[in-house]
Amino acid sequence: MEGMVEFWSQIGSIMATLMFVCTFAERVLPSRVWDSLESYFYKIVHSLFGFLFTDVTITFEEYQSDESFHGRNEAYTAIENYLSIDSSERASKLKAKTTKGMRSIAFSMDDYEVITDEFEGIKVKWYLEKQLPVSQSISWDVSRDEGRRCYKLMFKDKYRSIITESYIPYVIEEGKKIKKRNKFQKLYTNCNGDDRDLWTYVTFQHPATFDAIAMEPNKKQEIINDLMAFTKSKEYYNKIGKAWKRGYLLYGPPGTGKSSVIAAMANLLHYDVYDLELTAVQDNTSLRKLLIDTSKKSIIVIEDIDCSLDLTGQRKNQSKDDENKDSKVLPIKEMAKGTRDKKKSKSKVTLSGLLNFIDGLWSACGEERIILFTTNHVDKLDPALIRRGRMDKHIELSYCGFEAFKVLAKNYLNLESHNLFEKIRTLLEETRMTPADVAENLMPKSPGLENAGEVGLENLILALEKAKEVERLKAEEALKDDGDNGELDEEESDEEDDEEDGSEGEGTSDEDEDDDSSDEDLLKI
Ligand SMILES: Nc1ncnc2c1ncn2[C@@H]1O[C@H](COP(=O)(O)OP(=O)(O)OP(=O)(O)O)[C@@H](O)[C@H]1O
């Protein structure tokens, strides 16, 4: 008994001496010298007294280098994330870093710090060790290598199986979830050909979610289900021997929510977005390089695809002789949108280059990617570009229906029902207004208005009635024009029929083919 008491008092005095030396050294030595020595003190304490707390130690190195993998150890990263939770309360020495585009500060345990964790009533300890490179272990050089780290998990031998079989997988899984939550999404755009980098990015901070998208609820759910099924289909794609990617075509008039749906998709899946400006791509080789440089879990978007490639009527206008040639080499058309460069693009990207981009050999280099086109004129696109297998899901975004209006009324006015709803339902059936215009009319014009809901609905009714009247006048004018031209049309009709027989025939068959294929997946929203 006496021997035991003496043993513990010896340990106590050694620990006290070491603590005193540590504190003294930290105060008197220049900080960079102390930085170099600190790891040795902790190593000594750990190897001398680690046995007091634990029987088993498992080490997770920061970097792994063997024949199967070379790089940062994913388990280490997951543990780092897992331990960052509540670390500000559990550890006394902390590191701080910014997350989510500088929106918050995240804390994690500092080097040589110990954190206690509990799992099913079992206590374990995590220790973060920094291993200095041998050649620079004690150095006066400020620019010395930072060194590598490892986490050491310490626990009693009797819990070995529960720790290895349940606790460690749990920590890794939780760590991955935390990483996913903390990862800030990026919005990339391709750089000019002269730049060294292929893509440049900003933090993606679009607030759109599917809850706020105005569309028919079943259709919305169908898109969400499709996206979620895609993210879980790695094995399925492997089994059928196809690259793990999916193509979406979003089409409809301006202001029906195509861009909002893209943002909602990215937010739902936590994917990065690559906004590919096709006119800035020099040629097919550059296009391929851009593709290879995208990361997995991303959405590659080509907006207004009909304005990027000259697909307009290429099949209708060209002669049979040059049809094949032209469908392979298509010049980039000058941009239609005001925000874009009005000059003719010098890009030499061709339709075949674009088709290869979507599903050629190189497109299989990454995984879990969505390729998405938007257009206001689906009829102008070459059927080859949007056929099933390339664009798997065709989604039409259209004028605002009553179901879509209800989503907007809930979002903008916090109204789920109102006696003006029925009148709005009738007007929406009688006229065409985009969700963007409906939203604009609903939006309260001055903040804090008491009866903002009712005012918003009345505004919308006025706007719908006006739109209905404009449509009526236009229809009347069109009828009048038809009447005036009726005689002339009759004279010319035989001539036109002859011309159309030659060139329109194929266009019609393409359209038929498109119609057939669209039955299952075409969503009219
Ligand atoms: N379906 C919708 N649901 C919710 N909001 C919508 C919807 N459609 C349009 N909006 C609103 O209108 C604005 C413009 O919509 P958006 O840019 O998504 O349309 P778009 O179809 O991409 O238009 P464009 O073809 O001109 O690019 C959005 O900021 C959004 O507030």
TrEMBL record:
| Gene Ontology MF annotations | ATP binding; hydrolase activity
Q: Which residues form the signal peptide?
A: none
User: One Pfam family, short name please?
Assistant: AAA
Q: Which InterPro entries match?
A: AAA+_ATPase, AAA_N_dom, At3g28540-like_C, ATPase_AAA_core, ATPase_AAA_CS, Mitochondrial_chaperone_BCS1, P-loop_NTPase
SMART domains per the record?
AAA
Task: Report the PROSITE patterns cross-referenced here.
Answer: AAA
Ranges of Basic and acidic residues compositional bias? 318-328
Family per record = Belongs to the AAA ATPase family. BCS1 subfamily.
Species annotation: Cinchona calisaya
Instruction: Please state every residue range assigned to the domain named AAA+ ATPase.
Output: 244-401
Task: Provide the organism lineage as a comma list.
Answer: Eukaryota, Viridiplantae, Streptophyta, Embryophyta, Tracheophyta
Tell me which UniProt keywords the record has, alphabetically. ATP-binding, Hydrolase, Magnesium, Nucleotide-binding
GO BP: any one term: response to stress
Cofactor(s), by name: Mg(2+)
Q: Which reaction does it catalyse?
A: ATP + H2O = ADP + phosphate + H(+)
Q: Does the keyword Hydrolase apply?
A: yes
Q: Where is this region: Disordered?
A: 314-341, 475-525
Protein known as: AAA+ ATPase domain-containing protein
Query: Which stretches does UniProt call biased (Acidic residues)?
Result: 484-525
